[in-house]
Every structure is written in structure tokens, then in C-alpha cells.
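Shipment paperwork, digital attachment
Item: protein structure file
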Amino acid sequence: MSRLAGSDGRQDDPLAGSVLGAYTLVRRVARGGQSSIYEARRGTERVAIKLVHSGREPSPEAMGRLRREAKALQSLQHENVVRILDWGESGDGNPWFAMEYLEGESLAALLERVGTLPEAEVVALLTPVCAALEQAHRLGIVHRDLKPQNIFLARAGGATVPKILDFGIAALHDSGTLTNSVMLSGTPMYMAPEQWEGLSHAEARSDVYALGVIAYQALSGKYAFEADTPLAWMKKVQFETPLDLVSAMGERPVSPAFASAVMKALAKNPAERPQTPMELLRSLRPAPPSTVSPKVARVGSRGLVVTLLVVLATLLGVAIGFNVSRRAPAAATGQRTTPMVVLMDTPVPRGVYDADALAHGGTNADTLNDALRDLPITIEKETLPSTWDREHHVLELKPDVIVIHRSAFFHGLNVEFGFGYEPFPDGAARDRWELLYRTAEDKLIAFMGLVGTSVPTTRFLVYSRGTGPTTKSGWPTEEYRRDWVTGVERRFPALRGRVTTLAVAGGVASGSFRNPEVIRQVRAALTSVLASSKR
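Attachment content:
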């Protein structure tokens, strides 16, 4: 992995000329805290070999990190992650692995050389990094040590290709914890507040925090905190407010969208950050006038019975809340000149209708945003993982219309439990799936009831291609949808006359928001709902 920290190859290196598997070590090109990287050859092929430092007894911790990194890279194949080629153990049992050999420099070296980068260049560099990290998170891999030193800017055919390096303390979905000696690990300036509690507390949103720090640093040349020791840094990260990016920039310009996205990424509460790397990326880019940056929540629950009880208890709590207190939203939205439309959908791939949106980490809400942005409306996007709990945020928005996928609450839960989709192996499997779907739909209806009761002006447009715990002819038929709305209104009378349904043309087989006919259908339905809200 050449030039990562500058070549430090030495003629007296005892490992130069050694053979590991089919590879001959040529020279050391980088050295870290516990491991070294060597240029090596296999015939005419030039590779990089990573191994524990020579000249001392390798610690179990160092060997564990190396094996962990090899496992992460083996499962994560992405053009913006360094590619692993081979791995093995030396004769004395020390692990090593071979990677593609890269020419270039780290982002840290670039920033040391030039100081800061223009906003557009920061976004351009982070775009592939966010895409790679998004894929890692989908595979259950959390980096936990993301920093400019671990983003390598490889030169390839005249282009610069960012590559994520060093998954040595990565969290893997099927691995145990690291040894006690590395339970607190990372680089202080890039560690999220929860990560200071120990590696077991670091999760995907901790990586989003690190991305925010990197973006802040690359643009301003500063950190959001100043401290001389790790302990002082920990206290500031956990208890003090970070310096606003606009203030850090002084007289230099920064777009409101970029500044807002970065500061949200630095939120102390993980639930208040953009919840995925791609959510952060979309909000870093200057948005069109009708778009507000998305905010999301995160997944986590175990056991069907436990989760169903929790969900049902939540629904009961919502219902009780209606009787006890119809509190107003916590914050007024002020006088709006255009209607507020909230687009709500699932981030789970199975629920995303279009392959290109999925490839970029998007949801149906992102596709709809592109299709509706020319309308005289203000759009807010809200993504719904399995344990979404941001009802208060929607209440504060006082939206005029909520456009929501009928299965928005279902797909995240289904991924959590691994029930899969049709065809099912037996009737019992399908029964479990249908029970989960009904429970998720109960959550959808309870959410609509909460908003509809608290914000009397909000209307709903519920869409689907036709899936659900009924025959496939259910949702597409007008009679079925009419009965569905009647049931919703019976449960929450405040919703009477405020719920519109839409069966996406093409159904499960070919329904797509890239289809012009479907977009015409959605625009017509939304326009009709907006007109109704004015009457």
C-alpha cells in the first residue's frame, strides 16, 4: 500500500527478501502502531503485504486485529475499499495478508500539504467513501477508526480513486469483541461520544460522526474542539458544544446545506445524526430550494415475540396518549409560503422500487423528491428503519401532506428477523411473515392517528405496489383500498376524509417511480390531496 505514510524502507530490514507464501518481501513502505506494510512481488505482480512488526513477539491483540481486518476486507468487495488478494500465516503462526499495491497519498497527507479543500472537492472525495461505507454497514461491518490517514487517494490512469484502509478494529456482525486491552480504541479527534464508552458502543452512526469530522476538517482546516490530551478531548466531545462550522470558516464561504449537514453529523445523540453515510452525503450537497436534508433513525431489536410485544405496547402507549394529552407540536413552523410535504419510506433494499436509487443508497422518497421538486412545495424526507421513533420531529413540522409507503415500517423489521419473502418454505413461515406485516401496519396506522389527531390539517397519501398479508389482488383493487381506509377511519375518527391511497401502476412486477406514467399518477394524486387541504 505504497506511500501511505511515506516510504521508510531500509537496507538493513531483516524481512527484506523474506518469503511469505508465494510472495517475496521487497521493502517496507509504511509502519503503523502494531503492523507494517511491505512492497512485495509474486513473479511480476506487485502487491502490498501487511503483517505484525518484526523484531518482537507479536501480541494476541495485534494478531487479532490483522485477522479481523483480513476478514472484513474479504467480505467487503468495493472499488473504493482496498482489495485483498491473499492471506495466510507465517511458519511461526503470525498472520499476514496481501493487498493491491496503491500509488498515491492519504487524505491526511494531502491536507497537510494544501491545508484545506474547496467544498465541491470535499464532497467529490467523500462521495465514493460514503458509498463504500454504506455497503460495509449493510454487511454488518463498522469501521470504527475512520480518519484522513485511512482514506487513501490512489492514482489510477490519471484519476484519483479514494480507497478506505485499515479495518483493524472494525466491528463485524458475526464476530466477538476485541480483547480488553483494545476495548477503547480509535483516534480521539474522530471518535463519536458513544465510542468513548468502549468499542462495543461504536456503531454505524459512529462512522457517520467521523465522516462529519473529516468534512469539517477538510473544509476549515480545524477541528470542532481543541484539547491537548485524549481525556480532555473526551470531556469536550461528550459535554461541550462543537464550534459551528460557519464560525470556524471565518470570512470564507460555506453553503448552508453543507454546514448544516456537518453539524448534524457531529450531534452527540446518534439518533440526531444523518443515520447512514449516504444520508449524510445527500445532505452535504447543496439542495434545491424545495428540499430539506433528511434525518433518520436506526435499527435494533431481537426476538419476534419480544419485538411484537414492544411494538404493540408502543401502539397502546400512543393510543393512551391521545386520551391523556393532545399536546401541540413542540415547535411551530412559522408562516410557510408553500405546503410542507413529508416523503417517508424504508431504506431496506427490498422496499426500494428503483435499482438506480438503491445503488446510490437512496429510497423511494429520494426518487419522488426528484420527480416532485418542480412543484410549489417544500419537501422533507424521513427514512424509516425498524425502530424509527421520530414522531416528535414530524409533529414539529406540521406537514400539510405525508406521502408514505404502506410497507415503510415492515421491511426493516423483516430484515431484522430474517423472515425473507415469497416463496416461503411452509405455511408456518408465511404465517409468521403475515403476523409481522400486520404488526408493522398497525404501527403505520397508529403513526397516522397520532399525527392526524395532533395536527388536524395534515393529510396522508399512502402508496403501494400491492404486497401485504392478503392476496396479490388486494391493494391494487379500489374496493380493497376503500375498505382499508374505512378501517383506518374507524380506528381514528380524526382521520376521516384525510387519507388517500394509491396503487402504483405496474404492480409488484414492474411498478417503478422511473416510469413516467407512475410519476404522472403520483403527481395527480398529490395535487388533488393538496387541493383538498386548501378547502
